[in-house]
Write a structure and sequence with these properties.
It holds the Pfam family HATPase_c_3. It contains 23 helices and 22 strands. The chain is an alpha+beta fold. The termini are far apart.
């Protein structure tokens, strides 16, 4: 029997493994089963080239759990090891600068294991003692047993073993007893070893007999050795792809379609990516792509490894060029991974374009489910955005779909304004904005539906990409101003009348809350509504983006909602209000206005006297008189507005007109709605 020290240049390798790899301790099973699979595949390769003359026989890797003994055994019938090979591969961890290395990587389990080939030593994360019983396939080889209790000391001795291959026996320590539960080992095998290319048996299959579950003699094979992505697309049909998707994501809806990747240059990559029916909650959908290296599971946390928008896809990626055991930060900076990421983006874009060209009708039918994915891609990946110009669609209120170029051609004749800017009109709530949509379509305008979760951001993106274009929501202004041209309707109200009528209508506007109304007067024509409420495009869009993003945008979220209350001075009912207000208030208002003119004239004279003088050169008497004049003007205006406000606040016609406008915008609720109904009955 040979005794010795494991050849490390420091004695603290095991405490490091125990302590700092603890957070990733479940990967021990992946490492040991993967090693067993590698040993089996190597033997198969040697057999195929004639270097192994014996019988391959059953190459199944077996995982055995003995709860009473407190052990887990991983057995294979692969190439096995000689005593010299154990000494070389197990005992000599002769990496240089071990102390520096351990200090640098002590908090990163995957970096330690993967960077230095320490997969086997991950077994000490969960074990108080590890044994290796192995017999090499080489002719005349002797079986040996290696044993180590988690210190640098080991023993190596000959042992009886009839069959070639290796048994790794883990004596599980007290802190990791959960790994002696069958359900936990089943979970880990399913997670990490589900698609390994050599059969893995864990226990026996069971069947229901005489009212109870009994074990059979048949091995329970836990993996699929020839998973769908390793097969040729020509040998597969739609049912195969759907079935595989269901096995990956039980209880999920069938996907829209898939992309089968099979690349061998400039790197190796296989896989199948699925377009799921994406719901509105993006976060729930992320991290459904499973990353493999030669059919060994690596991670499903692919953000930063693949482009952001591809995290919405589901499926499997497998590449030997993706390192198996390194940290995510290493993966994210690895040049091969970046090339793979870029290539997948291209393949996804190519596949979408192919489907669009091949069967546009079917593509349009899937668009509402695809839209979020494609918009997300265009917003976050410039290269994808360029490619997507060919197959991204816009949908109008009639349910018709257009490419960007098609839609531009459709609207340019009728929706180009006086400044030669193309105006894209849109609605985000067809029911709530129905009256505005109706007004726009009556003028021959086309209106898009932009009601998706990302549409506010996407509109900003398109405005940056499209030349001389802007997007305007249909309720952001009166229809005559949506696509501004030279106006045919001239205002007939004087400035003084506008000021007076603003005070009249202000008296009836809702007060309080986080909503502001700004009254203005327009000659929209006698056929248009008497009052129209619109919301300014820029501020509304900023508030919507603030609701989604927060952060620096939260400033806009705190601001009140601002609406324009546009009074149509050409409407007969508004004309009646103007006339009634003049009859009721003109005598008092004109008297005040006469006094105002006199005081304002004096203010002009005083300000003229200040021209060209510094503040300290202006006599105090002038300053005092100016302050007094300003005070008088404010008082006179307050009296004028008070007289007009008194008229306005009790006027049922004004109340009715404003409430009708609020109602058409779904802004009349609670007590105000109840009063409106009662008033309507009275007026009828």
């Amino acid at each position: 029997m040979q005794k010795g020290h494991i050849g490390v240049t420091t004695e603290n390798i095991f405490p490091i493994i125990k302590k700092y790899l603890y957070s990733d301790h479940e990967i021990f099973l992946r490492e040991l089963v993967s090693n067993a699979v590698d040993a089996s595949q190597k033997l198969r390769t040697l057999f195929s080239v004639g270097e192994f003359k014996g019988e391959l026989g059953d190459l199944t890797v077996r995982v055995h759990l003995d709860e009473k003994a407190g052990t887990i055994t991983i057995s294979d019938r692969g190439i096995g090891m000689t005593a010299d090979e154990i000494d070389k591969y197990i005992n000599q961890l002769a990496f240089s600068g071990a102390n520096d290395f351990l200090e640098k990587y002590k908090n990163d389990a995957n970096a330690i294991i993967g960077h230095f080939g320490l997969g086997f030593y991950s077994s000490f994360m969960v074990s108080k003692k590890v044994e290796i019983h192995t017999l090499s396939f080489r002719e005349g080889a002797k079986a040996v047993k290696w044993s180590c209790d988690g210190s640098p000391e080991f023993t190596l001795q000959e042992t009886p073993k009839a069959d070639r291959g290796t048994d790794i026996i883990l004596h599980i320590d007290d802190e990791n007893k959960q790994f002696l539960q069958k359900t936990e080992i089943s979970r880990l095998l399913k997670k990490y070893c589900r698609f390994l290319p050599v059969e893995i048996a864990f226990g026996k299959k069971t069947e229901w007999k005489d009212g109870k579950s009994v074990e059979t003699d048949q091995d329970d094979i836990v993996n699929e050795t020839n998973p769908l992505w390793t097969r040729k697309p020509a040998d597969l049909n739609d049912e195969d792809y759907t079935s595989f998707y269901s096995s990956l994501y039980p209880m999920s809806e069938d996907p829209l379609f898939n992309i089968h990747l099979n690349v061998d240059y400039p790197f190796n990559l296989t896989g199948v990516l699925y377009f799921p029916k994406i719901k509105n909650n993006i976060e729930v959908q992320k991290n459904k792509i499973q990353l493999y290296c030669n059919q060994v599971y690596v991670t499903d946390s692919v953000e930063g490894i693949v482009p952001e928008f591809l995290t919405l896809l589901h499926g499997v990626l497998d590449s030997p060029d993706i390192p198996l055991n390194v940290s995510r930060s290493y993966l994210q900076s690895d040049s091969n991974v970046k090339k793979i990421s870029s290539h997948i983006t291209k393949k996804v874009a190519d596949r979408l374009e192919e489907i669009f060209k091949k069967d546009r009708k079917a593509y349009e039918e899937k668009w509402d489910n695809l839209r979020l994915f494609i918009q997300y891609g265009m917003l976050t990946d410039e290269k994808f955005a360029e490619r997507a110009q060919k197959f991204a669609l816009l949908k109008n209120i009639d349910g018709k779909y257009f490419t960007f170029e098609e839609y531009k051609e459709l609207i340019k004749a009728n929706q180009t304004d006086k400044d030669d800017t193309l105006v894209y009109l849109y609605a985000n709530d067809q029911d709530q904005q129905h009256s505005f949509i109706e007004a726009a379509t009556a003028k021959g305008y086309d209106v898009l539906v932009m009601d998706g979760q990302l549409d506010t951001h996407f509109i900003n993106h398109l405005e940056q990409k499209f030349e001389k274009s802007r997007f305007t929501r249909v309720d952001s202004d009166i229809v005559e101003k949506l696509v501004p041209r030279e106006s045919n309707h001239e205002s007939k109200l004087s400035q003084a009348q506008r000021e007076d009528m603003t005070a009249v209508f202000n008296a009836q506007l809702p007060k309080g809350g986080k909503t502001n109304f700004y009254v203005s007067f327009e000659n929209v024509g006698a056929e248009a509504a008497p009052i129209i409420i619109t919301q300014q495009e820029f501020m509304r869009r900023m508030k919507e983006m603030s609701a989604m993003q927060g952060g620096a945008m939260s400033f806009y979220g705190e601001m009140p909602d601002s609406y324009n209350l546009i009074v149509n001075e050409a409407h007969p009912l508004v004309a009646r209000v103007i006339s009634d207000a003049a009859d009721a208030c003109n005598q008092q208002v004109e008297s005040l206005r006469s006094k105002l003119q006199s005081v304002e004239k004096r203010r002009e004279e005083l300000n003229k006297g200040k021209e060209g003088k510094k503040d300290d050169e202006v006599p105090q008497a002038i300053k005092d008189e100016l302050a007094d004049v300003d005070k008088k003007i404010a008082e006179l205006n307050e009296k004028r507005e008070g007289i007009l406000g008194e008229f306005g606040k009790d006027n049922k016609l004004i109340s009715q007109l404003i409430d009708l406008a609020l109602l058409s915008n779904n802004m009349l609720k609670g007590e105000a709605l109840t009063k409106f109904v009662k008033r309507s009955i009275e007026l009828i």
